[in-house]
Amino acid sequence: MALLEIKDLHAKVGDREILKGISLTINPGEVHAIMGPNGSGKSTLAQVLAGRELYVVTGGEVIYQGKDLLAMSPEDRAREGIFLAFQYPVEIPGVSNMYFLKAALNTIRKHQGQEELDAIDFLNLVREKMKLMEMDQALLNRPVNTGFSGGEKKRNEIFQMAVLEPKLAILDETDSGLDIDALRAVAGGVNALRSPERSMIVVTHYQRLLNYIVPDFVHVLSQGRIVKSGGKELALELEESGYAGLGIEDDEEVATV
Amino acid sequence: MTAVSEQTGAWLEEFAKLPKAEPWIQELRERAYARFAELGFPTTHDEEWRFTNVAPIARSSFRSEPTYGKKRSAVPLDAEAHLGRYASFDQNAFVALNTAFLSDVTVRRVPAGTVLEEPIEITYETPEGAAAHPRTLILVGANAQCSIVETYKGDGAYFTNAVTEIVLGENAVVDHYKVQRESLEAFHVATMQVQVGRSANFSSHSIALGGALVRNDANAVLSEGSHATLNGLYIVNGTQHVDNHTVIDHAKPHATSHELYKGILDGTANAVFNGRIIVRKDAQKTDSKQTNKNLVLSDNAVIHTKPELQIHADDVRCTHGATIGQLDAESMFYLQSRGIGRKEARALLTHAFAQDIIDRVKVQSVKDDLERYLSEKLHEHAH
Question: What is the full DSSP assignment across A108-177?
Fold first, then answer.
């Protein structure tokens, strides 16, 4: 059975329709890359799947593990194993990273019928995962993302993913703004989490990330629709000829330097 | 005027019933009562009381509660030089009323050069149905250091009208906490007047959690090279009303002041913050910063916030800022996207809003109590 089935999904923000009929099937263990120019709707798709209320679904359906995903609250989606690595992780002063992550993990474990972890077991788990992400343990005692560098924030997202062990991970432009060392660390963390039971949607603007996280499938999004799907070689094709080679122009006006 | 005399009339009866005190106290009381009778209770026409209507207090009839039990001594003789010298009853009817009903006074002295390891703890509990006028005088000598925790509490309906005077000698260091956990039916009016000596350092944390109708005045007068920190946290829900007025008087040069008041409002609660900073003519090199931040959790809660800068010197730095906001939608979604439920996320973010005030609390017992209270209260809200 497919893990996730998106059928003819339409969504808008305000009066603007952003997703105009997306269909996509993801099986357990598969890694799908979603590429596309700015404004094509890739981040919207990621946020809609995670349940962001800002976006209103106007048509279509999403079936996750046989259930109607769109009827679920964001927290229930997370408890059922969906994880969104944010493009722009939110700074939350006053809430410690450690407290936050323990609350998240234990809520999810409880929901899935597992025993909650005590402070010691949690700390051991966290230490192991921090090593994986080459992260400074001091970050744990700081407030969530507060005062983190761009790279630290992205590592923190993947670190959370490593701790929460989702069934479906959605990485929203996790590569944007990263230098090559941070990119390697983030990709290393993601690759360590690849497993036959875990599926991933990797949203990216650039092919670069896909050198490190090699996808099974690549989909190109333009103006709210998937215009081309293929294997990992499609990403290389895009790298050579650009989106223009597919007859796609940037969907948004971006300053050219 | 008729209204005023009607309202003050009931108090005259109570005043007449008071047993006579030593001559100097009796004289002070009578002067204060006369002034109270002239002033009457303030109304909302009075700028200082514009958003706080004390008519429910003026109309109420509580029996006078002259003593707080045997633990406190009567007024020590050597308090004469200080008592009533700082908290003026000339313009404030509640201070006048407190002074008129002066009986037992809590006096604490910290001799010069003494460093107290344990906080001075003063707790006032007003009995149901009573009007009490707790009076505190704390004299901290030169180079002395101490922490003070004032706690106010009670059950049912009553009226607490407190006045606290704190005097810091040269180079003294005082860390003060006022924990107001009155019952939700209580009226609480309080003035704290602080005289900060040369190069002394005073910090105060006013935690306002209880009370139906609350007015706090926190006033500090700064001498040369001294520093004052006035922090506050008010958490109101239901129909609670809390009004914080602060006055920091930079009377002399080179003094610094920092003020951070934060409020969490829910239900149909009302809050007022009025922060006045006075920089006198010769108070050059003053450095003053005032911030008031409010988290409004419901559509029906109201906050009035107003900075009031009166600057008469030219070489000074004074900044102020006020914010009124709701829970951040992005932060909510971030927490929810990690499996944390909506209500729990709301409680977490609300607690987080208060965190920087809690972090500044140095007395562990106060900090623990506050953390516990917040967790309980916020989760109550949540469920």
Answer: HHHHTTPPPP-HHHHHHHHHHHHHHTT--GGGGGSEETTT--HHHHHHHHHHHHHHH--SEEEEESTTTT
Q: How many CB atoms lie within 10 A of CB B110?
A: 21
Contact at CB, B352 and A95, closer than 8 angstroms: yes
Identify all chain B residues contacting A157, using CB atoms and an 8 Å cutoff: none
Do the Cβ atoms of A107 and B341 come within 8 Å?
Answer: yes
Partner residue facing A52 (CB), from B328, B333, B349: B333
The beta-carbon neighbor of A90 closest among B330, B340, B355 is B330
- Among the partner-chain residues A75, A90, A104, the one whose CB lies closest to the CB of B331 is A90
- pLDDT band at residue A241, thresholds of 50, 70 and 90? confident
Range list of H helices, A38-118: 42-50, 74-79, 97-111
Nearest to B333 among A74, A100, A160 (CB): A74
Chain A residue with CA closest to B354: the answer is A94
Residue A116 lies in a domain: yes
Q: What backbone phi and psi angles, to 5 degrees, belong to B260?
A: -135, 110
Domain ranges of chain B: 2-326, 329-383
Rounded Cα distance between A254 and A249, Å, is 11
The backbone torsions φ and ψ at residue A236, rounded to the nearest 5 degrees and listed phi first, read -65, -40
In B, which residues are within 8 Å of A111 by CB distance?
Answer: 339
* Strand partners of residue A4: A26, A64
For residue B343, give the chain A residue with the closest CA. Answer: A75
Cα(first)–Cα(last) distance of chain A, in Å? Answer: 47
Note the pLDDT tens digit of each residue in B152-173.
999 999 999 999 999 999 999 9
For residue range B89-134, list pLDDT tens digits in order.
999 999 999 999 998 899 999 999 999 999 999 999 999 999 999 9
Residue B291 token pair:
């911030």
Mutate to test the interface with B, among A44, A82, A92, A146 (most CBs of B within 10 A): A92
pLDDT of residue B383: 43
B169, B140 contact by CB (below 8 A):
yes
Domain span including residue A137 = 4-246
Do B242 and B207 contact (CB within 8 A), yes or no? no
Does some domain include residue A212? yes
Task: Measure Cα distances from A97 to A50, A144, A221, B356 in Å.
Answer: 21, 5, 34, 16
Torsion angles phi and psi, residue A148, rounded to 5: -75, 150
Number of alpha helices (DSSP H) and beta strands (DSSP E) in chain A = 8, 12
* Location of structure tokens 């989909």: A219
Token duo for residue B256: 């610094």
- Per-residue confidence at B69, pLDDT binned at 50, 70, 90? very low
Nearest alpha-carbon partner for A84 in A115, A55, A126: A55
Kindly compute the dihedral angle of the four CA atoms of residues B59, B60, B63, B66, in this order, to the nearest 10 degrees: -80
List helix spans (H) across B217-363: 329-336, 342-359
What one-letter code names the amino acid at A158?
I
Is residue B106 within 8 Å of residue B83, measured between CB atoms? no
Assigned domain for A255 exists:
no
CATH code for the domain of A42: 3.40.50.300
Alpha-carbon dihedral A107, A111, A113, A114, rounded to 10 degrees: -20
Number of domains in chain A: 1
ipTM of the shown complex:
0.95
| Burial category of B192 from C-beta neighbours within 10 Å (exposed 0-12, middle 13-18, buried 19 and up) | buried
